[in-house]
Amino acid sequence: MRCHHFDSGECRSCTLLDLPRPRQITEGRARVEALLAPYLASGAEWGEPIVGPEAGFRARGKMAVGGTAQDPILSLPRAAGGAPGADLCDCPLYPSGVEEVLEGVKALIRRAQVPPYDVARRRGEIKNVLITASPDGEHLLRLVLRSEQALGRIREHLPRLLQAHPSIVAVSANIHPEHTTRVEGEQEIHLAGAPSIAVRTGDVTLHAAPQSFLQTNTEVAGQLYRQGAAWITEIAAEHDAAPRIWDLYCGLGGFALHAARAVPHARVTGVEASARAIDGARAAAEGAALPVAFLADDATAWARREAEGSAGPPDVVIVNPPRRGIGPDLAAWLEGSGVRDVVYSSCNPATLATDLSAMSSLRIVAGRWVDMFPHTEHAEVIVRLRRTT
Fold first, then answer.
1. Count of domains in the chain?
2. Domain holding 102: CATH number?
3. Ramachandran category for residue 293: left, alpha or beta (phi over 0 → left; psi -120 to 50 → alpha)
4. Residue pair 84/73 in contact by the 8 Å Cβ criterion
5. First CA to last CA distance, the chain
């Protein structure tokens, strides 16, 4: 893939774009496999990397708004003071249709005369534009505003945007008054359309509402969920009774739903702290007619309480934590739980290594490097763990 923004020096977020794609994959895989080598079981095997397309894959965009109300610019914030750089609406990482919607948002800003937020002066209204794209060409749009001051003008001109771009199925405003590096605030105001966007991912359809976490690379995420389901199918074949499976940090339910689909007789429970994500997971389970129980709770606290009940710990645990990893408390519980099989999907191999060092009886028997963010050094990995004596 080539990018004129990278070649001109306007954007360098794809730090490895000068490296040939095969070399990106080979070196990325080697770094992760070397990091996790101390935690391999005897006979452990690394499968082929999980990769997707090198362009047009990015399902989520986060654009800082700069320029003026008459001539807005959508870009990535620069490190020095957060000042926006070149307009990046035509970034080749975005799938078809995103550029047209972003251009439509710029037209909305002009018509509604919403001043971009000036970081240095701490003045202005619109800070960021967030967009989610589904494989079916639909879009969820979020406008991050400093206050509700411009909402009236935005509502007035929003119908014209929706008429010009019928692919936009949902629009909301996020109110973010603080002067921080956070992309968005806590308050979300629905403006138009559906409460969520349906995103076909692997073998299920996820329902992502504003503020819900959704994997950036839908194609790779689908392969990731299928790999987890394949391992769970193998594990389930070793059980006489219906296996109990817990998906901790389940998010929108990708792993849990794939596990339930692959092993219909399994008893699957997904636990996630975000009530909004759980609402989406339940909608996905209902739409797919999959009997998965989804609960909004702290994953570690829930696992400890549930394991103390009459049924005890489950047969399989899936964990898909944020970058900080599962942490010492959940790692300690897993280590002492007696659970034999764990599927761990990590977006930060360094914290995975830290967690594995706290679970000395759980070793990697299989793993795959995951290229969720092509052209960068960001690495993800999915591993299958089994308890050793």
1. 2
2. 2.40.50.1070
3. beta
4. yes
5. 48
Q: What was the pLDDT predicted at 84?
A: 54
CA distances to 331, 344, 377 from 363, in Å? 13, 11, 25
Establish if 180 belongs to a structural domain: yes
> Which residue shows structure tokens 């926006």?
84
- Amino acid identity, residue 3? C
Domain span holding position 296: 4-53+217-387
Provide the 3-class DSSP secondary structure of residue 160.
helix
Query: Tens of pLDDT along 11-39?
Result: 989 999 999 999 999 999 999 999 999 99
Whether 347 is catalytic is: yes
Q: Return the CATH number at 264.
A: 3.40.50.150
123 and 57 Cβ atoms separated by less than 8 Å: no
Strand duo 244-248 + 267-272: pairing: parallel
- Average pLDDT rounded to a whole number, residues 84-91: 86
Tens digits of residue pLDDT in 186-240: 999 999 999 999 999 999 999 999 999 999 999 999 999 999 999 999 999 998 8
The reply to whether 13 and 149 lie within a common domain is no
φ and ψ of 207, to 5 deg: -120, 110
383 in the same domain as 241: yes
Please, which pLDDT band fits residue 83 given cuts at 50, 70 and 90?
very low
Encoding tokens for residue 28? 């990325």
**Residue type present at position 140:** L
| Amino acid 78: pLDDT | 56
Length of the chain in terms of residues written: 389
Considering the domain architecture, whether residues 94 and 135 belong to the same structural domain is answered as: yes
At 203, the amino acid letter reads D
Q: What are the tokens at 162?
A: 């929706």
| Other beta carbons less than 10 A from residue 9's beta carbon | 9
